[in-house]
Amino acid sequence: MSDSFFNTGSDLKDNFAKAKFYTDIQKSGVYPENSLDLPSSGVCFCGGGTRAMNCAIGQMSGLSELNLWDHIGYISAVSGGSWASTIFTYYQSGAENDTELLGQIVKPKDLNRGNLNDQPAGFMGRVVSDSLEKSLILRLGKDVLTLGILQKLHNIWIDAVGDTYLRKYGIYDQKNPKYFTLDKSTLDSILERNPELKASDFLLVHSKAGDAKRPFLIINSSLQAPTSDLPIQKEENLSVFNYTPLYVGSAKYLEIDDENVISGDKVNFGAGGGFIESFAFGSKDPQKDSDPDSLQVSLTDKRFEIVEATGTSSAAYGSTVGSFMLSGLPGYLLDKIPFSKLIPEASYWPYPGFKEIGKPQKYRFTDGGNLENLGFITLLQRKVERIVVFINTSTALALGCTFSPEEPPTSEEVSSDFYPLFGFTWGNQIHNQVFSKEDFNPVYQALAKAKEAGETVMTRSSLTTVANDWWGIPAGQKVEVLWVYNEQVSKWEDQLSDDLKEEIAKGKKGMFPYFPHYDLMFENGVTHGISLTKEQVNLLYQLSAWNIYSNEVVFNDFLKR
Fold first, then answer.
1. pLDDT exceeds 70 at position 339
2. Are 3 and 300 in contact (CB under 8 A)?
3. 495: helix, strand or coil
4. Contact between residue 472 and residue 381 where contact means Cβ atoms under 8 Å apart
5. Which of 210, 343, 508, 537 is most exposed, with minimal Cβ within 10 Å?
6. CB-based contacts of 383, cutoff 8 Å, min separation 6
7. What confidence tens digit (pLDDT) does each residue in 88-122 have?
8. How far apart, in whole angstroms, are the C-alpha atoms of residue 16 and residue 20?
């Protein structure tokens, strides 16, 4: 479905392979994972950099504490949520088991400055304190100094994400890149069709006796537009792009009409329409096979890895062709870097359902949060019946509001990732309405009531969809949603020691600025980028875990069916 996802400029090998090709998904409603007989439930770990990653680790730990993973069919993840979800789903080393990986829950009354500084070797939260910015700067410098020989510009973000967050867990190794697939059964199928490949070429989903069974992971990014058409007038013309252990692509075919900002020329391009088996996403020369459900492709010498999926999912700068993260770099580097070339690019062909597969062209791909930062609609597409949505936001929930179509919420009052689902648009999120505007205020009021009571800010809703042609969501689809909002919880804070309560109360002058709404950037000053301190990581981790295990009845009733 694509040429080398991040073009290396190297020669391509004519290594033909047979890969499964899935089309007509939107029409049939049958996704490749339907054969796995998954529970009709899912959890969404949203985007939001290290804050979202931090929250997700705590929430994963809380779910483990209640032994709920066997009752969850899907994880849908975006950006920082995908960093945690990728490690949880694929880790091969770095932790002996899930207990080490997900850390130790400590009751709030037992938390103190000493154990907040403690991070055991295998704990996933350790990497939240590592410096992504340092890796980015070193790689940018290497690209400039070696004229792109030792570090390709278009790989800088991907490699920095891999080196900072995934390498410790055996998922990223520049010297030994691997394809990825689901399990031994799917690997055997690939090898039977492609005997030139080896089992050692693949990374499998984590599976170890005593550890939890992994839900089916979907990492979400956004397909932007063909490179030749950029910049376009409407940055909201984005299509969801899914990366899973079984396939890569976008189910819903879209035909986009737009206009080039510079030339004023009209542009028209397609997006989506099908999935290709994950190992074949970095391929060329697609041709019809005798098997109608397969394609013949030519594999390249650049393997498509899971780091490229989770790295692309978090490339937030892609929508604006720039990044606040890069603003502090030395001027001599900035002068030499064409920022547009930092955006992930793929030679990709949409599939409109015609008999002939068209020639690929280069497309740009960006952070999934530039389109839908919760990963929620991806699960609606699959008709998942029960969805836990973790809104791991930096926006404190305003109290005392009454919203309506005439008085919509603002991004200062409620997370702007949340209300576009109800038809109140924000930024690029103009195509995301799946519920009526009238449904929003009851959900908001229930969350606000929980906050006022000092409880975990969550509420359960029974909702019915409105039609959304952009995403392919029909009207009348019923879904149960448990919304969990990252917010201060006084019933948890009241149990903390006096010195911790005093430190939190200091706000930006203390150890925990803006807790629990850590800033996406510069929480600890411009020199620290997006990294968080050990104490900050552990405090947010413990709150996020407590929000689940202290509400055992709610989560058991919602998921154990």
1. no
2. yes
3. coil
4. yes
5. 210
6. 29, 40, 477
7. 999 999 999 999 999 999 999 999 988 999 999 99
8. 13
